[in-house]
Amino acid sequence: MVDAVLAEGLVKTYGKVRALDGLSLRVPEGEVLGVLGPNGAGKTTAVKVLTTLVRPDAGTASVAGVDVVADPAGVRRSIGVSGQNAAVDEYLTGFENLDMVGRLYHLGARASRERARELLREFDLEEAGDRVAKGYSGGMRRRLDLAGALVARPPVLFLDEPTTGLDPRSRTSMWEVIRGLVAGGTSLLLTTQYLEEADLLADNIVVVDHGRVIAEGTADELKAQVGGERLQVTVADPAQLGRAEELLTPLAVGPVVREEERRGLLVPVTGGAARLADALRLLDGEGVALDDVGLRRPTLDDVFLTLTGRSTAEDDAALSQEASA
After folding, report:
1. Hey, is 66 helix, strand or coil?
2. Which of 68, 107, 119, 314 could bond to 147 as cystine, CB 3.0-4.6 Å?
3. Of 86, 84, 114, 77, residue with least CA distance to 99
């Protein structure tokens, strides 16, 4: 069986910025690969290479068995792409946007119109199909953009952070659409900053940082790499947060995360209830009052923190060199 996507040792530099640094990944046919990482990790550059928009400086890549450098036109015939910013002509109606895409793919006038109406129904845009897209909400534009990527029924689909900027309801709706596509046999490479999204949608996940893969596996396998549990503590008085951190750090088996805004600490521990009891005894003995305390299993965010030494929230606040490349 030919892999839907296969990349080996991809390198891409922009001046002094090494956007891809030997990145390798594969998407088996009919599966979803989640590419997880913060802004600037190299996710979008990887998508640009795999969709023939950017030529790699080194390494090889193929999509649906076609080399992205040797036969870019052949690759483009097999893919659909939905980027971070919805590629929608706001002065055309939803129907006209999709009909135009169909004609660009040379489907013919009748087939283009039929496919446009079909996709408007599938993406719950039928009532808005004859309205100008300028009046669409962000979620509607995202759905229309994704519909446009599917006009030619491509076997391989690239979604580059498809739910960035959407409200929770629109994000959930988009997840349902993506699950439906996968159930229909589409092979998918999905880049995302949302850990829940990768956990929910992907068969396998690669964690990318500074242009290279630093971990890969299923969501459960990645969480198992971290192991243990997380002790979550919220102090009543923000002034006592530092003292609470001093007391609980000796119990930790990894870096303690300090969350100033919620007056909280996240402490990786082993031993479950015993460590919780130890923590409560230490804090009570020093008069540190709590608003909340509990134990939870590790998340993909914990995986990223353990692997990189920082959280995705820290990286979200950083400027993305990649986005401006």
Report:
1. strand
2. 119
3. 114
Paired tokens of 277: 């009891």
pLDDT tens, 270-309?
888 899 999 999 999 999 999 999 988 877 777 777 777 6
CB of 235 closer than 8 Å to CB of 289? yes
The domain spans of the chain are 5-223, 228-297
Written as six digits, the tokens of 125 are 């845009």
> Which residue type is seen at 111?
A
Closest CA to 177 of 200, 155, 196, 210: 200
Structure tokens that stand for 139 in this block: 């979620």
**H-run or E-run covering 9:** strand 5-14
- Report the 10 Å Cβ neighbour count for 75: 22
Q: For the CA atoms of the chain, what is the radius of gyration? A: 23
Chain centroid, CA 149 distance in Å:
18
> 228-297 domain in CATH 3.30.70.100?
yes
- Measure CA 117 to chain center: 29
Is residue 46 within 8 A of residue 20, CB to CB? The reply is yes
Could you tell me the fold of the domain covering 5-223? Rossmann fold (3.40.50)
Residue 124, pLDDT score:
87
